[in-house]
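Today's session is about reading a structure prediction critically. Students often jump straight to the picture, but the first step is always the sequence itself: look for stretches that repeat, for charged clusters, for runs of hydrophobic residues. Only then move on to the predicted structure, which in these notes is written as discrete structure tokens rather than atom positions. Here is the chain we will use throughout the hour.
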Amino acid sequence: MKHLGALALALLVVLAVLAAPGCTELAASPTVSPTAAVVRPGPLTIFYTNDIHGQITPGQDKDVGGYARIATLVNAARAQGERVLLLDAGDVLQGSPFWTEFDGRTSVEIMNAMGYDALTLGNHEFDRGQALLAERLTEMQFPVLCANLEFAADSPLQTAGVKPYTILNLDGLRVGILGLTTERTPTISAGAFQGVTAHSAIDTAKRLVPEIQAQSDLVIALTHLGADEDYDLAARVDGIDLIIGGHSHTVLRHPAEARNPAGQRVLIVQTGAYSQYVGRLDLTVDPTATPHITQAQGDLVELGRSIADDAAIKVIVDRWSAQLPASSVVGQTTVDLNPQARGRESALGNLFCDAILDYFATLPDESLRPVIALYNSGGLRGGTTLPAGPITTDNIATWEPFNNTVVIMNLTAPQLKEVLESGAKDSPMQVAGLTYQIDTNRPAQQGNDDTKTIATPGQRIVRIAINGQDIDLQDAGTVYRVATNNYLAGGGDGCYTFLTITDPFDTEVIMTDVLETYIRNHSPIAPQVESRITFGAR
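Below is the predicted structure for this chain, in token form.
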């Protein structure tokens, strides 16, 4: 009778869980015989973050975000005696004035104090070079994971303690965590251009997941690949129970589901970016069931002011905040400025490019003055729209956290077309001094990332106009003075044409100074989208 009563109670608990909002019941097929000893299902709570980009405090435009609020939620769960994991899927250091001033030391100290359990490397961790990254990683008191990036023998990262995976034992529940990072890291992160080789995330997972499975009750892929790649990973690799992702800044408010090659469910989660949300997953893990996650309830928690700051973490945040140089107002904008520019022309991108041409318009030698400015859309950062009103030095540092400098060079029309083709594949180049047209139905340019050359020329750029007049895209005899940032000039984002230029001149003028000068001189500003980039067949 006692067994019947326990069974009835268990059924009531399961029914209550199924009735809860956001709860997903995952079909489980026991893999042991009825007479075998049954391992009791184990509860597990996972908090997860990704793409925080140095945003350790609430955002300036609205009171949302910050580590102190994350710590409050995590510590409350830990205080209840639950099995709790706190994981981050990369791009944790770079992206705010704290990164610019303190080289990521703020984030490391806070994450150590919060008791993070693991981090996977993001591509932007490399932005200040491998030596600085190695220094930060050796300070981290938790596993740093990345299985598919290989570091050269002379890279400082060889001795920084990066692991392919880790196995954590949580009161008898063994959790294996595999780290995977975007294969584009050596082409999109300046600090990884030399000495870092990327291997296939899929092939790496296929090789390592069986090894991890043999030691684990649950397998988590902690990835910085992007949401589309996470779905692909789930569909092509057996044995992964949960994918906690980053890189694409995708907001998945509840766990998404995919199927692996064996037809089993795989959960996929991601929080967006800039600490607006923290993710929480409450799982039941049964090592004898297939899939191992038999129950899952997950939500994103917006880190608004209703969540109190954890006192201990706030002390650390406040100490670092007090050391920041005071922000000052440099001008006004009469329009909202949205830093998100992927896939389209951006008013902020136009501001960047206009500022470059304006800054160098007074060079003493007129022949050196650029007439065209190009900027990669991914170089415009910041998570939220700046509303019309004051622009501060902090805003500028958030828009441009890389300390990029301006490089000036000569390009012919075919070279200019090649550069624009490199962005036309998925992230069009922001421009000033010209307009151009993209036909997305035509073949995209393909680069060879090993040789850093163009493997297949693109055919998507069908028109370039300067001063309203179309230029001959085959004319190699006319030279245009072009300005861009040192990241692109070094072949970033697959702009390998720049590597063939023999006369690049790095002005060593940083973009934040260019932007601040322009805004001070032209305030109030009102940059607009002006059809500098158009789409369609010619």
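Discussion point for the tutorial: The chain has a mean pLDDT of 90.
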